[in-house]
Amino acid sequence: MTSIFSLVLAVEFIERNLTEPIGPEEIASAAFVSPSYLFKLFKRVFRCSPGVYIMKRRLCRAADALVREDASVTDVAFLYQYGSVESFSRAFKKQYLLPPSEYKKRKPQFSDIYPKFVIIEGVNNMVPFTSVPYNFNELSAGLLSSRGTYFLLVDIDHMMAINDNLSHEAGDAAIATSMSRIERSIKPNMLMMRIGGEEFGVITGSNDSNVAEEIAKNIISFADEEVKWSGDPFKFTLSVGIGRIPEDSEDAEHAIKTADEALYKAKGNGRNTYYRAD
Question: pTM above 0.85?
Answer without folding.
Answer: no
